[in-house]
Amino acid sequence: MVSIWFFIGISLAVNGALILAAGIYQVVNPPENPGVVLFNLHANVWWGAILLVIGAFYCIKFAPRRQS
Amino acid sequence: MTPLLAIAVPTRLVHLSPIDVVIVVFYFVLVLSIGWYLKGRANTGEDFFMAGREMTAWVAGLSFLSANLGALELMGWAGSAYQYGILATHWYWIGAIPAMLFLALVMMPFYYISKTHSVPGYLKLRFGEPSRALSAVSFAFMTVLMSGVNMFAMAKVMQIVLGWDINFSIWVSSLTVGIYVTLGGLRSAIFNEVLQFFLIWAGALLIPILGLYEAGGWTQLKVLITQRASEQYVHLWAGLGSFSNNPMGINWVGIVFGLGAIISMGYWTTDFLVVQRILAAKDIRSAEMAPIIGAGFKMFVPIIVILPGLLGLAVLPEKLVPESVATLTGGHSYNDVLPLMLARYCGPGLLGLGVTALIAGFMSGMAGNVSAFTTVWTYDIYRPLINSKGTDHHYVNMGRWTTIIGVLISVGTAYLVMQFASIMDYVQALFSFFIAPLFGTVVLGMLWKRATRSGGFWGLLCGTVSSISMWAWVKFDPAALRYVALSSHAKALAQDMFQALWSFVVCVVVTVVISLSTKPMSDAELTGLVYGLTEVPSVGDVPLYQKPLFWAGVVTVVFFILNIIFW
User: Which is deepest, B238, B326, B410, B434, by most CB within 10 Å?
Assistant: First the structure.
């Protein structure tokens, strides 16, 4: 059976990649009105990267082939 | 204008970008995929209702905690933190940690070795069929109400944040939960709860991080809160010497004995919604470790729930108001603080993840209620009272149908919940009705072998009736609060704490008196069910760091340190 941790890895990795991509896009094309406080910290870049790394780790460590 | 129509006025806080929509849709696809993947592993009753009893301590522990991280946790307690300050943290520390450790070390062995399917099932073994029937019916009633509360809260946040129609939100979330629980049973619910636990942290943790950065750190945050509210908003215990010296209108007796000793003990040790996750553990060590793991994480949940409420008090430019006022004025209520903070800090992508975290929280609570309701209905109401000769396959089918029917009843309940002004007070009242007396009955049953079947049944019944009576008394005559809560300065939450305390006392006194006047049960009848007549299985010859008692000690030390730091 596929481990629950693998599903969690997929979720974190996909969400992290999407958030990171959105963040990089905003760094390259800064909006005139960001609409959020502390936009200058570019939280979506580093938070997306953290989620991506954690998710990738779970995906690799608990990949179905490795588990079986 | 009816309350429903008043609520349905669209007040969109944010607009989701396409990337946010992709993240939300991906979440729904993933949870449905997990349900679909697990549908082939829910063919027997043991699989469907108990997840095959093969969960590890980590999975059972995180699921145990996640089932409680529902709508009320995320939105309600963030709103309570805004309203009452750091006092709301008591519901996470003294109102949870001692009870979780008590469950792990004292009660779990009895639940586990009796191989019961449910808490009412244990009552059947210990006190007989009438006690089970009373407990099962009251639990089923409470569960669908709780599920309705969850649905309403989710629909409300979707309306505030996204402008979604409240009816659309209720039906989308309920159908999704209904599908994945119907397909995969408890295993599917547990898998999704663990996933939701991670998503909730991933989506919500950024708010306190960025909030503390904006406020200038914890010390500066306390200064801001003191300026905008009062110093009592940042003290856990210092203002609890009297009812009138803190924003919650409660004293330390209510917190320690009402909340810490009764309500939390009742909730965490006898509410089948959470206990069911532990019963699915693969062995006795996992069953004992799971609540301890849950307690370890529970201590830090205030970071993503209480802290955003406190930060809202410090940094939000507008003043939030009670739900009843917000409905009339069109402003934002206390319960809106979490989505408001989400909108304040989270841009494209992060906003989608934050919204997903909220949806995940709501759905995990709802799935917990639905799966517990299904098990109790099938094993504790339908099988003993309606059809005791069905096959295992028949009961699994009944479980699947009950899941669907339970969801539909919950949807109906969600509309009823809209009639109540305060979600939190309503749920606290429910806890007081059923949970406190049930805890009295179960704990006496486990620890006192002299308790008899008649004593258990009448104690449970009288405790429940006394709780409902006190609630009704104060409802029709608010001045009666001074008698129930022992002070004319007491507020609603104090009433709930003391109501629970008295109903527990009534339950225990009635149980003891009737037990002592009826024929004792034989030792043979009580073996495996009562302390002193049961050989509690060992967790095995494992190193110190794998022993539940060691980790319970670690959690206890951290618990005391945290309370002292925030005194």
Answer: B410
Are the CB atoms for B30 and A7 separated by under 8 Å? yes
| Nearest-Cα residue of chain B relative to residue A37 | B345
The answer as to whether B436 is a domain residue is no
Q: Which of A4, A15, A26 minimises the CB distance to B348?
A: A26
In a domain, B40, yes or no: yes
Q: Across the interface, do A4 and B22 touch by the CB < 8 Å criterion?
A: no
Q: What CATH code is carried by the domain that includes residue B317?
A: 1.20.1730.10
Kindly state the helix (H) or strand (E) to which residue B246 belongs, with its residue range: none
pLDDT at site B8: 39
- B88 vs B538, more confident: B88
Q: Decide if B447 is inside a domain.
A: no
Query: Is residue B543 over pLDDT 80?
Result: yes
Q: Which letter does DSSP use for residue B16 in this model?
A: -
User: CA-CA distance, B314 to B471, in Å (whole number)?
Assistant: 35
The stretch B285-308 carries a mean pLDDT of 92
CA–CA gap between residue B172 and residue B75 (Å, rounded): 19
Length of chain A: 68
Q: What pLDDT digit, counting tens, does each position of B334-362 carry? A: 888 888 888 888 888 898 898 888 888 77
**Residue owning tokens 């990267």:** A49
Residue B427, pLDDT above cutoff 70:
no
For residues B366 and B118, give the distance between their C-alpha atoms in angstroms, rounded to a whole number: 18
Residues spanned by the domain of B558: 3-419+533-565
Domain presence at residue B514 = no
Closest to B158 (Cα-Cα) out of B304, B325, B307, B28:
B28
Token pair for B38: 């697990």
Q: Nearest C-alpha of chain B: how many angstroms from A60?
A: 17
* Chains A & B: contacts with CB separation below 8 Å: 87
Specify the number of domains making up chain B. Answer: 1
In A, which residues are within 8 Å of B27 by CB distance? 11
How far off is chain A from B413, nearest CA to CA, in Å?
Answer: 32
Token digits for B139? 């639990």
A30 touches chain B (CB under 8 A): no
Task: Give domain limits for chain A.
Answer: 4-67
